[in-house]
Each structure stands twice: as C-alpha cells, then as structure tokens.
Write a structure and sequence with these properties.
Elements lengths: L2 E3 L6 E3 L16 E6 L5 E7 L2 H31 L4 H10 L6 H19 L9 H13 L4 H20 L26 H8 L4 H13 L3 H5 L6 E3 L2 E4 L2 E2 L6 E2 L10 E4 L2 H14 L8 E2 L2 E5 L2 H14 L12 H12 L4 H8 L4 H8 L7 H13 L1
Antiparallel strand pairs: 1-2, 2-3, 3-4, 5-6, 6-9, 7-8, 10-11
Helix pairs in contact: 3-5, 7-9, 7-11, 12-13
Length: about 375
Amino acid sequence: MAAKALARGMGTYYKDCEHPASRWPRCPHFYKVRYRDSGGNQVEESGFLDKDAAIDRLTSVYKAKKAAPAQQAKSERIEKYGEMRFREYTIEWKASQRHLAEASLSHLDSLLQHHIFPALGTRRMSTFDHKVVDGFIRTMERNGVGLAAQSNAYDKLKSILLDAHRLGLFDDNPLLGVKAPQYDPKRAVIPSPAQLQALRGAGDDTFRLIVDLMSGCGLRNGEAAAVNVNNIVADDVYRVTEQVNQTTKKYGRLKHRKPGEYRDVPLPQRTKNAIEWYADRYGTTDGYLLRHPQDPNRPFQPYLLQNQWQRLKRRGELDIPDGMVIYSLRHFFASNCLRQNIPITDVAEWMGHNNIDITFRIYRHLMPGSIGAAAKLLEIGLAA
C-alpha cells in the first residue's frame, strides 16, 4: 500500500489494496484518507470514489483545523464581553481612545453621562441589535433632546458598538438599517461688512484683534486666543499650531489634529497689520500676544471674549441680529472666501474641518452660481 501525501499537515490519501498507485484511477477499490485531528489523534476514513473526493475531504479537515484557534478565540471573547454591561464595556473602550484630546474626552463623558448611560448603561452587550438602537433614538426624541445632541450621542454609541462587532460579539451589525438622527446646522448668521466694521471699533484692543483674526483668517476663538507673532510664516500665510483649550485652560493641540500638526491659512494684509500693531504696542511673551489680564503667566481665556461680547450686546449700541454670535466672525471668513470663488475644498482645509460635508452643509447657500449660470459657462467651452 502506497500513500500520497499532500502539503504538510494536510494528511494522505491511499488505497488499501494490492494495486500500485499508477492503477488506482482504474481499480475498483475505494480511496481512503488519513489525517490528524485537532487533538493530534490519527484518524482514517474510507469510502471515497475518486482521488478528488479524498483530497476535498482532507482539504476541508485542514481548513477546519486552521480555523479552530480563531473560532476558539472568538468564543472566548463572546464569553468575556457578551455578558458585560454596556457601561463596563464602554469604560474599557474609552481607555483605548488615546487619540482624543482633552476637550473631546470631556465632550464624550458628557454624552455618556447625560444621554447614553441612563438609557443603556446596565444592558448586557450581547443583547444589542437594531431594535435596541432604534429604541435609544426614540427615547432621546421623547425626552426632547436636541438634534445636535442626538446626532453626537448616536455617533458615540455607533463607535462603541462597531468596536464590539469587530470583536465578534454580534452576528449581524446592530446598526444595520437604523436611521441615524439627522442634524442639519441652521444657516449661519453672518455679519455684513458694515456690522463687522462696527464690531472692530466697539470693544477694546484685544477684542478688535480677535475680531480681525476670526474674520480675516477663519480662526476659532480658542485659536485666536493663542495668536503668536512667530506663526507669521510668510507675508500672506499664518500657521495655526495650537489653541487655548477651554477645558484645561492651557495651550493644546488643534481640534481634529494630532500633537504637532498645524494648518496654514491665508493672512490678509489688514490682519497682518493688526497682529504687528498689537505686538508693537503691548509686546509679546514667547511670541504670544494675548495673556490673561489678571495673570500674565496664563494664556488668554476665550470666555473673556464671550464676556465682552455679552457686554456689548447689553449696551444695545450695535446692530447684532438674533442668532449672531462670536463664531459668526468665523462664518464671515468662509462667506468672504466663497463669494470670491475660492474652492470650497480650500475653505474646508483652512477652517480645519475634518470633513468637507460639514463645510458644504453650512455654507452651500453662499456658493455663487446657479444652474443657469453654469449652462452659460458650459456653452462658452462648447462653442470654443
């Protein structure tokens, strides 16, 4: 009896008869196979009509043995995490979110404590499916939770459940078929050039500088609070490298950026002049222009800007329509760019949006042109 071995670990096939291997295809005896099972024990099976059937059997056994460790590991994960409460699982998941900045972690904690844990904290992980997620969204709706908070809470729940799905806790994706809360930002209330000019002259020099930085370069208020004269990297380029973190009250990395990352933004001459004028008049500390008025060793805090804004509104001397906030100064920057036909992709990059969809949703109505105008421009190209 001669035996034919396959690849290492797959086993052998043979015929237990007097015929040589060269005659096996024509001899009437059944093929047999020999292999070792997952426990290392030798197993023999017979009854295979031809060589292909014997090889198919050895191949299926080999694949099953290769898959066994992975299946065992999956079973162990299901046993460990399936009975775990959502709150406990989330705490473990959160510990792995090392990429999140302190402000993002604070926002995550707020969503967990106010919206997600009260509804789902004690639920066992193995019991999640699309009906549970749908029920969570309906609960937020009944409780009058705003659409923005609903959307943010759903996004965090989605991240946690997808992590569990990758571990194999669910046969089916528990988010499949779920209609996520749709948050569409209201159209931004944008200052007119006349309103912007009035704001420049309404507050103190610090307020005026921040107005120029936000409207001229598109900085967030925390980024404007961290303005540094050394970040003027060219006559027409300002490099945004950090912000004053509103949670820690210290300089920190940019939103949606890793430590050390930056973004370059256009620096209009008027804004450059404002930076240099302020630096000449008040001096700098390691290049920083703004410091806390009661403690020059601390960064300027964005809430001080908010306080001055509220004082200006209470005086009633300015044309500040409903819905206009400090952040509207940054909206002015985006509006100014788009009205000058600057591509929205560039605007999204300069504003630091991590997704162009955000820029498009907020500012699409500001983009010049229409279908009719496009048709005329296309006609020019066709007629050339």
